[in-house]
Specification:
The protein is mostly helical and about 425 residues long. Helices cover about 80% and strands about 0% of the residues. The protein has a single domain, classed as MFS general substrate transporter like domains (Growth Hormone, Chain: A, Up-down Bundle), CATH 1.20.1250.20. The protein is globular. The two termini are about 40 Å apart.
Amino acid sequence: MISFLRRTFISLSIRNYRIFFSGQAVSLIGTWIQRTTMGWFVYRLSNSALLLGVVTFLSMIPSVFISPFVGAWADRLNRHKMVIGTQIAFFTQSSLLAILVLSGVINENVQYPILLLALFQGMIEAVDSPMRQNLLIDLIGDKKMLPNAIATNSAMFNGARLIGPAVGGLLIVLFSEGVCFAINAATYIPVIISLFFIRIVYPKLKPRTESTVKKIIGGWKYVYHSFPIRYLIMNLAIYTLFGFSYSTLLPVFARDILRGNSGTQGLLMSTAGIGALTGAFMLASKSSIKGMQLRLIGVGLLASSALILFSRSTYLYLSMWMMLFIGFGMMMTTATTNTLLQSMVSDEMRGRVLSTYTMTFQSMSPFGGLLVGWLTSRYGPQASMLLCASVCFIWSLNGLRMLPRFSKDMLKMLVTNSNSSVYRAPRLRLNK
């Protein structure tokens, strides 16, 4: 048992990553409290699934325009200082939201500040997410530990996902939405403090040889011409647009389908967090990426099947069981994609590829939120989710057909970029 735990959390033996992990663990609980509260708050004020979709859209659409530039600059900026700046900005956004809600400025008749603050949050996220993705390798230093670091980072994220929604749902019932927003603001303080204790020495930058636009276009060409990377990005796009958008409708399902309250929504989100946390621990216990390509397709089929059943359920316990598998599958999809990308890609292209990863995730999410919001306004929440889940299921079935080519080309990329050690294949014999 002890050896299992040591293997699972081996990346925490690195000082910088351990400090980062500790600070983020507190902050992410607050983030999930706010996510739970925001959905319930917007739906309570407006009774509009479409407005839920608009808020999701505004909070993520900036990534479409900002993330490519951040990715192109990521290799030349001090990523440590940039992340400190984004965390301070998140603290400011959450504080403003709490003040406006607690003072009554935002109410049933005045809702536009929510839209402005959602847009502000999206702008911060567009910078923060690709920077934090690139910061991870700076914290670890050893690329062999990268898969474990990504997995433990996912475990931290989903542990917070387990605790935050349950606490958020309870706090809404006991106090108010404004208190929840204030608590989230306070949780940014530990992570900001922890970041100042991290020590990273960046090498002297080489002179710039190409423009930012050329770097962005070069990154997109690299993604397009590499079949494994192109497939991973496409898979993420499909699941983000049609699968991950289920979270937008959770307040609707909790209140209108399951006849519950904010606590019901918190239970659903926390159950998804349990599934996601289970998946994160499974990934963290793996010492290589071998077999991840098949696992990616398998968890896609599992998650989409669970979404189909969830869309038809009117019973809380059945819905919670389905959320367990949905959370597991969705977490495994994102973390596995991240791990495979960082393992396959060369160092000089990592920033640009990860910015494409981030842009895909955060650009498809807003359109997914708008899509399910519109579909729900026309056909109802159950039909909307059933349609989206079916698209994901069909796509994953198609992935089985592409698996042999994906596996072959992935191994070639690992060898070409001298990353074959993360695969741990004892008799890897491929020509460059």
